[in-house]
């Protein structure tokens, strides 16, 4: 069972914003809690953004144009800003400060923490997970038999591991079973068990 820290209206917290279109891209922010909704599963917080932690180029590529949950009744917050009008983070933060009523964000409590250090740790752990997931997907895509004449084809798992070790270099975790867990492929019997629930 996940234990949720509870926060109150007016409290300053750190959070990760997510949206349905790109759920694996999380935006770290500092925010003030505007409202709270408790339900059976977890608290949700309506936030007024105070600070953005990504650089402006990343935000222009991935944040602009996205739609987020804006309140508890289903209203959406769309980042409908023109990219050419913003060259610094402070210019963008000013919009969220001055027009805050148009730019509210609802976040599940599991994406909210009290300190910037906790935000850094939460973000790092989630990013590690997303990157490892993509590395496994890359292996799956580059190892398909029908793709055997493709430019990025790897004939065996060991070939892929050698290339991955070279790519990761000193970033590879010291865990002995790292590659076994990262590139694990369940066999047909295990998949059948999953399907049967």
Characteristics of this structure?
7 strands, 20% strand, 197 residues, alpha+beta, 36% helix, 2 domains
Explain the overall architecture.
This protein is α+β, with helices and mostly antiparallel strands and 197 residues long. The protein has two domains: 12-116, no CATH class; 143-196, no CATH class. Helices cover 36% and strands 20% of the residues. It has six helices and seven strands; from the N terminus they run E-E-E-H-E-E-H-E-E-H-H-H-H. The protein has helices spanning 56-62, 89-98, 116-142, 157-168, 178-182, 188-196; strands at residues 12-17, 27-37, 44-52, 67-69, 76-78, 104-108, 112-113. The strands form two sheets. Strands 6-3-2-1-7 form a five-stranded antiparallel sheet. Strands 4-5 form a two-stranded antiparallel sheet. The longest helix is centred in the middle third of the chain and has 27 residues, at 116-142.
């Amino acid at each position: 069972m996940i234990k949720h820290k509870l926060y109150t209206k007016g409290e300053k917290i750190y959070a990760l914003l997510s949206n349905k279109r790109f759920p694996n891209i999380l935006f770290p922010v500092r925010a003030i809690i505007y409202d709270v909704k408790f339900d059976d599963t977890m608290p949700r917080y309506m936030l007024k953004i105070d600070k953005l932690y990504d650089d402006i180029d990343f935000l222009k590529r991935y944040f602009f144009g996205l739609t987020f949950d804006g309140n508890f009744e289903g209203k959406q917050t769309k980042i409908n800003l023109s990219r050419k009008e913003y060259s610094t983070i402070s210019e963008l933060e000013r919009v969220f400060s001055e027009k805050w009523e148009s730019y509210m964000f609802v976040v599940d409590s599991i994406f909210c923490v009290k300190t910037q250090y906790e935000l850094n740790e939460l973000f790092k752990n989630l990013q590690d997970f997303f990157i490892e997931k993509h590395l496994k997907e890359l292996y799956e895509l580059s190892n398909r038999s029908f793709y055997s004449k493709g430019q990025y084809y790897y004939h065996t798992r060991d070939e892929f591991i050698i290339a991955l070790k070279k790519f990761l270099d000193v970033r590879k975790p010291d865990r002995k079973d790292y590659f076994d867990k990262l590139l694990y492929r369940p066999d047909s019997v295990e998949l059948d068990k999953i399907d049967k629930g």
